[in-house]
Design brief:
With 305 residues, the chain is mainly alpha-helical. The chain contains twelve helices and no strands. Helix 2 packs across helix 9 and helix 4 runs parallel beside helix 7. It starts with 7 loop residues before the first helix and ends with a helix.
């Protein structure tokens, strides 16, 4: 995996993205005080989609309107928004926000496995295999094999978050295969619109009519999730991708958990088990190996010696 040089602007964007996504798990906790999980997800994507439509036309872009493209948008909306957002939000009804963020880091490992399975140009190199094995060992340490042998709401919450990671992994393959030729803003707008159309009937059938008598805290949580944690985060994501490359973008996955853990501790008084920190360390190590630059730096020093 080749990494481009990171400019000062890209570093600032990486930090902002890590803050936006690192805080989203805390904000979800506040949203769940009044909202049911599926309606919380609907609010997040609905208002984000509306703002993105304004941005698209404000920039003079035009959305494509063909059945093929909108079919791809709806599938992408399911894989990258509706399914993972719902699983993560439901998972947070039984596990801490910081732990959710740590487990979310497994997305990169599942992404590599799924991409190697379905994409011919994504090979499993020895470094990637090692990184995936170490990262998945971290996940196993966090979840614990004993908790899988009996029904435990906490374990189910962790498994739900891992299910979200797998959905994200398939979303990456789908985007590579079926969403070429679109601008980042068009892709995000179509994807979020597709997921909104999916979530509205699902939330209504599963959880009943929405409760519109929300407190200012819940409204603020919705605004953060949709405007900052989704719209602004996606725009930052694509800007970093263009300026610094996908390898450097992976760094945000390492930067998010400390932010989430700190916010969960400072605001919600969350206390994570020692196994969570051990697993977090293993996941971070796996991501560093996948990133590759530390290995190349060591190899370079050896060759100079």
């Amino acid at each position: 995996m080749k990494n481009q040089t990171i400019s000062r602007r890209a570093w600032i964007d990486l930090i902002l993205l890590a803050l936006a996504w690192g805080a989203i798990f805390l904000v979800i906790e506040f949203a769940l005080q009044e909202l049911t999980p599926l309606w919380a997800v609907f609010h997040r994507i609905c208002w984000a989609a509306g703002l993105l439509w304004i941005i698209v036309y404000g920039r003079g872009e035009r959305m494509p309107f063909t059945l093929v493209v909108w079919g791809a948008f709806i599938v992408m909306g399911a894989l990258n928004n509706a399914i993972p957002f719902s699983l993560i939000t439901w998972g947070q009804t039984s596990i801490e926000s910081g732990l959710t963020s740590i487990l979310n880091g497994a997305t990169a490992f599942f992404g590599i496995i799924v991409a190697a399975t379905f994409l011919a140009d994504e090979r499993l190199t020895p470094a990637r295999v090692l990184g995936v094995l170490i990262g998945m060992a971290g996940v196993a340490v966090i979840v614990g094999w004993r908790s899988l042998l009996e029904f435990d709401p906490r374990a189910m919450g962790q498994i739900a978050v891992l299910g979200a990671c797998i959905s994200y992994a398939f979303a990456g393959v789908w985007a590579r295969s079926y969403m070429k030729g679109l601008t980042p803003t068009q892709s995000a707008t179509g994807m979020l619109t597709g997921s909104t159309l999916l979530m509205l009937p699902i939330a209504w059938m599963a959880e009943g009519a929405p409760d519109l008598s929300l407190s200012l805290t819940s409204i603020a949580a919705i605004l953060y999730m949709s405007l900052i944690g989704t719209v602004a985060a996606y725009l930052l994501y694509y800007r970093i991708l263009a300026a610094a490359g996908s390898g450097n973008l992976m760094l945000v996955t390492i930067m998010m958990p400390p932010i989430s853990i700190f916010l969960g501790w400072a605001v919600l008084d969350e206390r994570l088990a020692p196994s969570a920190f051990i697993g977090c360390g293993l996941i971070a190590l796996g991501l560093i190996i996948l990133d590759g630059r530390a290995w190349r730096a060591v190899a370079g020093k050896r060759s100079e010696a």
